[in-house]
Amino acid sequence: MKATSSYRRALREILSKWKRSEFHLALSQVERALEHWPDNPPLLRLRGQLTQLQDESGPDLRAAKTDFERAADLDSESPAALTELAHYLFAVEDDTAAALRSFDKSIQLAKRLLIDALEGKAKTLAEKQRDDEAFLCMAEILWISSTNGQSVKDADQKQLLARLREIALD
Amino acid sequence: MNDEAQADDLIPGSLKRSASYHSRYGKKTYKEIKQLASGHPVDNKARQMKKLIEQAERLKDKPKK
Fold first, then answer.
1. How far apart are the first and last CA of chain B?
2. Residue A23 Cα, gap to closest chain B Cα (Å)
3. pLDDT of residue B5
4. Are the C-beta atoms of residues A81 and A71 closer than 8 Å to each other?
5. What is the model's pTM?
6. Chain A interface with B: residues with Cβ < 8 Å
7. Euclidean distance between CA atoms B56 and B15, whole angstroms
8. What is the DSSP letter of A148?
9. Buried b (16+ CB within 10 A) or exposed e, A96-131
10. Residue A52: which of B15, B51, B63 has the nearest Cβ?
């Protein structure tokens, strides 16, 4: 497997061509990168995105959807591929029901990741006795966990508060 | 995005293969398509074309964000 620096260089080249609207070249670059790092979720996602920016002679449009589904399957913790899949379903297939399901899954994943990071940050801040900032992180967790700004259900709220107390007392 | 640009210039060739692409609307401007898409009743084909235009724009701008 090629070194990390080669991977970063490959990504930079892809993005550089993309920024210059050289979509065909960017896609070729992604294809070459996938030869070295097959089944790499970020590269699959880039290929899915760039497939939609090709001219009439480009690859089958449905390959973009397959790439997003594969990326989501390989990296089940990441919301990025699911978000791209949702956009594709919404705009290209005009399938709002499927798009909503994908957006919802992506949002739940993103929330979980964000809460995990905020919990960690709150603990770190509390250890440094930066209690006000730790409290703000916990407040943010509470806000994210609510549904459309409304209060969480009673049982969920008790669970959430218990968890926040654990962090505060750690 | 340029409101006066024609749909065919804003939608890449690959996205023209989507069932949401309607060639009859290709010469309409983005502005005209937006108006048709939000009309009463909604012009469904214009609505689909608008989404393709905006998807293309979102993807073109991705690396700049």
1. 15
2. 9
3. 96
4. yes
5. 0.87
6. 15, 18-19, 21, 23, 49-61, 87-88, 90-94
7. 8
8. T
9. eeebeebbebbeebbeeeebeebbebbbebbeeeee
10. B15
Residues comprising chain B, all counted: 65
Give B1-65 as a DSSP string.
--TTSBHHHHS-TTGGGSTT--GGGTTSBHHHHHHHHTSSS--HHHHHHHHHHHHHHHHHHGGG-
- With 0-12 / 13-18 / 19 or more C-beta atoms within 10 angstroms meaning exposed / middle / buried, residue A46 is buried
Q: Which amino acid is at A167?
A: I
With bands split at pLDDT 50, 70 and 90, how would you rate the model's confidence at A153?
low
Q: Nearest residue of B to residue A18 by CA position?
A: B63
User: What distance in Å separates the CA atoms of residue B34 and residue B42, rounded to the nearest whole number?
Assistant: 10
User: Across all residues in chain B, what is the average pLDDT?
Assistant: 94
Q: What is the pLDDT of residues A3-14, one digit of tens each?
A: 889 999 999 999
User: DSSP of A8-77, one letter per residue?
Assistant: HHHHHHHHHHHHTT-HHHHHHHHHHHHHHSTT-HHHHHHHHHHHTTS-TTS--THHHHHHHHHHHHH-TT
* pLDDT mean over A123-143: 91
Q: What is the mean pLDDT of residues A64-80?
A: 96
Instruction: Say what the pLDDT of residue A157 is.
Output: 66
- Residues A161, A133: Cα–Cα separation, whole Å: 17
pLDDT on residue A16: 95
Q: How far is CA A119 from CA A112, A156, A158, A159, A167, in A?
A: 11, 17, 17, 14, 7
Q: Name A21's bridge partners.
A: none
